[in-house]
Design brief:
This protein is α+β, with helices and mostly antiparallel strands. The protein has four domains: 3-139, ibrinogen binding protein from staphylococcus aureus fold, CATH 2.30.310.10; 161-290, no CATH class; 324-402, no CATH class; 458-582, no CATH class. It has helices at 3-17, 73-82, 166-177, 183-190, 196-209, 213-226, 239-244, 275-323, 327-339, 374-418, 422-434, 446-454, 479-489, 520-532; strands at residues 21-29, 32-38, 45-49, 56-58, 87-91, 98-103, 108-112, 119-123, 129-132, 232-235, 254-256, 268-270, 345-347, 350-354, 363-367, 437-439, 459-466, 472-476, 495-499, 507-509, 542-548, 552-554, 563-565, 569-573. A seven-stranded antiparallel β-sheet has the order 16-17-18-20-19-21-24. Strands 5-6-7-8-9 form a five-stranded antiparallel β-sheet, with helices on one face. Strand 13 (345-347) and strand 14 form a beta hairpin. The two termini are 66 Å apart.
């Protein structure tokens, strides 16, 4: 986080939180924490994000939309030690990205926000380390339990500008300038607490006004420390517009520690009531933009994978079609046998009869197992003819469906290249779901639906099918996918199905609410899919267990996907004959 903006956030926190009570310390995700305060004048809540590439603290501007997170050991210990205590003080060492919040009896929380060094440190009543969220090897001694807490300190070779006057800062800059280092790089890399945004502002103001960089920096540091500087966000447009255009990133939007004299050409300044609100608005927007970019990248990967799968399946179908024997040959042999029964001559495992289709009356030789009557052999040949015809027709139909799927996937690839906004991503997800790709699936809850809009989509390890009645049917692919489908995605009242007594896919029928009973036809269609994707797929009829998901439990100590059923009913169906990705055909059942 920009150190100069952090100074202003610390000032806001000190003004608002001293005397307030810490009501909760909650871990919202692996790297995100929320502190809420009672009696605070402005900051009722602070969010701390410890993402390595961009840690930050600020006032949250939107509700957390991610899934609920089980708190780790540090969050539990910190909440037990700090919640309910009054805030005694908030301070920040000027040149370090550290915020120290002290509470009753000298306890405290050190919030370290250096890039790739984000951390939370719990302090005991004497100011010693009681625990830390992260303890990297390089800081093992500094964060050892019981040791006196100390920030990282000023690295060797870097300048602390807060206690120096303008000539001293200029002399330091000049020493690096003599080595060929540009002023911008000197400010950004060698002067502690000055980030890239502040360095750019200082260089631009020095060039515009004719003042030295040291004089400009000294003036601006005084304004920041005194609270007169007002941080703002600079970007090509508003934050919401940036998200809609698909360009909301730290490369295009910048958090500035003070308001520049004039924004760059074509850029706008975005303000907020306080520095903490500016920080929260900026960082939450950047995280939303990164999540949207991941979502689009995930969709692109899914479309590519589905296109590759469909291409491979189409090639296999075409190869199968070429491998079919000519069905008319079997019919002609059967008719020759029946027409030439009186003139047939056996020779071992072959029989010779006249060919009725040959004008010259030449003989045709037909394989004839010993002991098999010729009329029965003719029946066998007719069956082979019918079976071959059905196989060719089914394979041709499969090939047509796969080629049509490929055309739709190629069109979706073009749509992905044009997709920019969240609405575009949502439309692309819906188009994939219409093709049976289980993308963007989340638990049916408010948090789950909201998280779907902010997370990168993945193929959820399931086939997605729409029943004839319009119900969503999900079919697991692997054992781990089965476990996730049943215990992460399915709601308690969804219908769960599995082939009885054999390994196979978990199948879920999503039920909109308790008022919508699953029609018998949908149950049979889902059961047919459970039978198809099981080890009983080649059986004529298969028993399938079905029960509401709430009656399914993980088997204690069992492998992923192994379950115990509390209550169950059984339906008997024929396995579905067609892959759901190639179109749906209602199964026969009884």
């Amino acid at each position: 986080m920009d150190n100069l903006v952090l100074i202003r956030v610390a000032q806001d926190a000190a003004r608002s939180l001293v005397g307030a009570s810490l009501e909760s310390l909650r871990q919202e995700s692996e790297q995100r924490f929320r502190l809420t305060f009672g009696g605070a004048t402005e900051l009722a809540a602070l969010v701390i994000s410890l993402r390595p590439e961009l840690p930050w603290i600020g006032r949250p501007q939107r509700r957390w939309e991610g899934p609920r997170w089980a708190p780790g050991a540090f969050a539990v210990a910190a909440a037990r030690a700090l919640v309910g205590r009054l805030v005694d003080g908030v301070r920040k060492p000027p040149c370090e990205a550290v915020l120290l919040i002290t509470l009753g009896e000298g306890r405290g929380l050190a919030i370290e926000l250096a890039t790739h060094g984000g951390n939370l440190v719990l302090l005991d009543p004497g100011g010693a380390v009681a625990g830390s969220w992260h303890r990297p090897p390089a800081n093992a001694s500094r964060l050892a339990a019981g040791s006196r807490y100390r920030p990282r300190g000023v690295p060797e070779g870097k300048l602390d500008p807060f206690a120096l006057d303008a000539p001293a800062i200029d002399a330091f800059i000049a020493s690096w300038r003599s080595r060929g280092e540009p002023d911008f790089e000197t400010l950004r890399r060698h002067i502690l607490g000055i980030g890239g945004s502040a360095a750019r502002l200082v260089v631009d103001e020095a060039e515009r006004t004719g003042r030295t960089p040291g004089a400009v920096l000294r003036t601006r540091l005084d304004e920041v420390v005194s609270g007169r500087a007002r941080p703002v966000i600079e970007g090509p447009c508003g934050l919401e517009d940036g998200l809609e255009r698909g360009g909301l990133s730290a490369e295009r939007f910048h958090l500035l520690p003070w308001t520049p004299g004039s924004p760059s050409d074509g850029r706008v300044l975005i303000d907020a009531p306080s520095a903490a609100a500016v920080s929260g608005s900026y960082h939450e927007a950047i995280e939303a933009g990164a999540a949207h970019a991941r979502r689009l990248a995930g969709l692109a990967a899914i479309v590519r994978a589905e296109r590759k799968r469909a291409t491979r399946a189409a090639e296999n179908a075409a190869e199968s079609l070429r491998g079919f024997e000519n069905p008319d040959r079997f019919r002609r042999q059967a008719e020759a046998l029946l027409a030439g029964l009186s003139r047939a001559r056996r020779d071992g495992d072959e029989v010779t009869v006249p060919d009725p289709y040959d004008p010259s009356g030449a003989d045709v030789r037909i394989a004839a197992p010993a002991g098999r009557a010729l009329p029965l052999l003719a029946d066998d040949l007719f069956r082979k003819h019918r079976r071959a015809r059905r196989g060719i027709e089914a394979t041709e139909e499969r090939l047509r469906a796969l080629r049509a799927r490929l055309v739709r996937l190629e069109a979706l690839e073009e749509e992905r290249l044009r997709a920019k906004s969240p609405a575009d991503a949502a439309a692309l997800e819906e188009a994939l779901r219409s093709l049976g790709v289980a993308v963007g699936l989340t638990p049916r809850s408010r948090a789950g639906r909201a998280a779907a809009a902010a997370s990168a989509p993945t193929v959820a390890g399931a086939r997605l099918v729409r029943s004839t009645d319009g119900f969503t049917i999900l079919v697991g692919r692997t054992a781990r996918d089965n476990d996730r489908l049943t215990f992460k995605l399915a709601a308690p009242d969804d219908l769960w199905l599995h082939a009885a007594g054999v390994p196979g896919a978990h199948v879920i029928v999503r039920v909109p609410d308790r008022e919508h009973a699953v029609p018998d036809r949908t149950v049979l269609e889902a059961a047919a899919l459970a039978a198809r994707y099981s080890d009983a797929a080649r059986e004529g009829m298969v028993d399938v267990h079905c029960t509401p998901r709430k009656f399914v439990r993980r088997a204690r100590g069992g492998a992923p996907g192994t379950v115990v059923l509390k209550r169950v009913r059984t339906v008997r169906v024929r396995p579905a004959l067609r892959d759901p990705e190639e179109g749906w055909a209602s199964p026969a059942a009884k």
